[in-house]
Write a structure and sequence with these properties.
With 195 residues, the protein is α+β, with helices and mostly antiparallel strands. It contains 7 helices and 4 strands. The protein folds into 2 domains: 81 residues, Glutaredoxin, CATH 3.40.30.10; 96 residues, Glutathione S-transferase Yfyf (Class Pi), Chain A, domain 2, CATH 1.20.1050.10. The structure holds glutathione.
């Protein structure tokens, strides 16, 4: 049985959404974590090395980091196709954008939010305005990150864009508005929100 170490309204909600899309049985174990406002503490029940959410166990496997969890789940559970497998068309884009979310998109937008100046050649990500341009350019003319096929990218990056727009951490463009309306209209998104 899959166990998701989770806290509502955090990054682990993306994994709830993904599990709902995949239609695989899972249980959630709600754990505490260190919150932005200084409250909360690491929960010893959580296998994440830093006590962050999400973490996930599946039989003898233990995963942490949202992108790694998403890749593991979409490779292993294939009843619903949520990402191209190794050797399939689109795998290059799939892996690249999965890594882009925690490696580039999040740090860039968070640095801007907290007034941290970008340092070329030192920071492993790009400045936030360039990230916004890249995301808008990539999604132009596409329904989803991979074109016509909804995938885990639309949960990890699309869900992140949805959050960043709501939090006014990204500029809303008509295209991003349409895109996030499209992905959040899915029944699995509603199930995640209800949970
Ligand atoms: N890079 C991680 C980030 C996970 C993360 O920072 N989650 C937040 C909740 S949204 C957390 O657990 N924070 C607690 C802490 O930083 O100790 C991922 O994408 O899974």
């Amino acid at each position: 049985m899959i166990t998701l170490y989770h806290s509502p309204q955090t990054r682990s909600s993306s994994i709830v959404w993904l599990l709902e899309e995949l239609q695989v049985p899972y249980e959630t174990r709600v754990v505490g974590f260190r919150r932005f406002d200084g409250t909360g503490a690491k929960d010893p029940a959580n296998p994440h090395p830093h006590g962050k959410v999400p973490a996930l166990t599946d039989g003898g496997d233990t995963l942490f980091e949202s992108s790694a969890i998403a890749l593991y789940l979409t490779d292993k559970y294939r009843t619903v196709r949520m990402g191209p497998q190794a050797g399939e068309k689109g795998r290059d884009e799939y892996l690249s954008w999965l890594a882009y979310r925690p490696g580039v998109m999040e740090p860039a937008l968070l640095c801007r939010r907290f007034g941290i100046q970008h340092v070329y050649g030192a920071m492993g990500w790009a400045p936030a305005d360039e990230v916004e341009e890249a995301l808008n350019a990539h999604l132009k003319g596409r329904n989803y990150f991979l074109g016509d096929d909804f995938s885990a990218l639309d949960i990890l990056l699309g869900g992140g864009i949805h959050f960043m727009l709501q939090a006014k951490m990204m500029a809303e463009t008509p295209m991003l508005k349409d895109y996030t309306a499209r992905i959040t209209a899915r029944p699995a998104f509603a199930k995640m929100m209800a949970a």
